[in-house]
Amino acid sequence: MRYLVKRILALLPVLAVVAVIVFLLLHLGPGDPAVLIAGDSATTADIAQIRQKLGLDRPLLEQFGRWLWNILHGDMGVSVFTGLPVTTMIAQRLEPTFWLTLGTITVAVVTAVPMGILAAWKAGTWIDRAIMALAVVSFSLPVFLIGYFLIFGFSIKWALLPVQGFHSIRDGFGPFIRHLILPTLSGALIYMALIARMTRATMLEVLGEDYIRTARAKGVANTRLLLRHALKNASVPIVTTIGLGVALLLGGVIVTESVFAIPGIGRLTVDSILRRDYPVIQGIILVTSTAYVLINLAIDLLYTLFDPRIRY
User: Fold this and answer.
1) What are the pLDDT digits (tens) for 36-57?
2) Helices 265-275 and 235-259 meet at what angle, rounded to 10?
3) Single pTM value for the model
């Protein structure tokens, strides 16, 4: 508990720096934000109205103070174009991004960890080379290219799965899972390659330890040797890679959601950038940065569950 409290207190300066950077995004960009939002055909009155709406007519410190006070009270501002609260717009897009991230990392972990263990156990054989070749190819291809290949094969050629869109799980599990399969696979292939390579590298290191040779000499079964003795001691780097993969997915879903027309946080980010909707952009960056920091905290706390030798 002491460690948890210390880590949470240590996060406060990080979140403060994030808040300052997110606030300054509105002011560090080239040009006047009000002019950029208003467009070329806007009048002076239109630009003045936008400046007043964004609070750009006040001193910088006063703007930051008001913005931070509103953030602490759960108010991220109002969208310039839709007139909706930013918190409402983000909340409406959370479900698709949540299920896409969860499905992607689940598929990646369930497939990559066994592949990495098998590659390490059969190191130097054709099985090891085949798994690593698949991992290299998967990691080298961009997400959008994998997505288009999957769409062409499963949607256009064989007509097995829908091309795009998202159905809430409340509307039925069948349509929900059918619309989630292709975007999940397109993202999972890349993270599967990353996790498989890390699992193989750490397992190879552990399998060379003396206690593994001792267990093998005592006649311990291969399954027990790999899972209980080797994998458990190699789990810390693997868990770190998985956690970082979850954090990276929060930003990587932008491409996946754009390819498959999924109305999630990633798609909202693209639309907001194209329209220069600064309050929405600030809110999205603040939410994803906070999630990234909290995921790193969760990874640190999970270490002791996988390796009892670690003590805080």
Assistant:
1) 777 777 788 888 888 887 777 7
2) 50
3) 0.86
